[in-house]
Design goal:
By secondary structure, the protein is mostly beta strands. The protein is built from one helix and nine strands; from the N terminus they run H-E-E-E-E-E-E-E-E-E.
C-alpha cells in the first residue's frame, strides 16, 4: 500500500514539475564612466524598448547603476533608447533565440544566445555573457 501511494504521488509531482531555469529574457545593463571606468549612476527621463512588431515599452525616471530591460523573444534584435532632456542614447542588441521545452506540461523556455551590440551614442559597449542568464550580472557594460 505504501509503495502504491508513493508511486502515485511521485508520478503526479513529476508530471507538473517544470523546474526552474536560469535563462532570462531580460537584459541586465551596468553603466560606467568612460574616463574612470567606475560604476556610474545614470539619470534618464525614460527608457524606450522597441520590439520588432513595433511595440514600444517605456520605463520612466531611471536613476540607478544597474537596469533590467526586456528583450524581444520573437525577433533577433531589440532596440533601446535612453531619453534625457538634452541627448538621446540608442543601442541595438542582436542575438538568436532558441526555444526548448523541458516537459510537455511546461511553458517553453527561451534561450537568448550570441549577443552583439552596437551604438553610435555610447562610447563603448562590452558584452559579458554568451547567453542571457539570471545568475550573471551585468550582461552588458555601457561606457559613456
Amino acid at each position: 500500500m505504501f509503495l502504491f501511494v508513493t508511486t502515485c504521488l511521485t508520478s503526479c509531482v513529476d508530471e507538473n514539475n517544470c523546474g526552474i531555469t536560469e535563462q532570462s529574457d531580460e537584459l541586465f545593463l551596468q553603466f560606467y564612466n568612460i574616463e574612470t571606468k567606475k560604476i556610474r549612476e545614470v539619470d534618464f527621463d525614460s527608457v524606450g524598448v522597441a520590439f520588432a512588431n513595433e511595440e514600444v515599452f517605456y520605463l520612466d525616471s531611471i536613476s540607478n547603476t544597474l537596469l533590467y530591460v526586456p528583450v524581444d523573444v520573437n525577433a533577433s534584435t531589440t532596440n533601446f533608447t535612453f531619453f534625457t532632456d538634452s541627448v538621446d542614447y540608442e543601442f541595438e542588441l542582436s542575438y538568436r533565440v532558441n526555444v526548448f521545452i523541458e516537459n510537455e506540461a511546461c511553458e517553453p523556455v527561451f534561450r537568448i544566445l550570441g549577443l552583439s551590440a552596437s551604438s553610435v551614442a555610447f562610447d563603448s559597449l562590452s558584452i559579458k555573457v554568451l547567453e542571457l542568464n539570471k545568475l550573471v550580472s551585468p550582461h552588458v557594460e555601457i561606457y559613456f
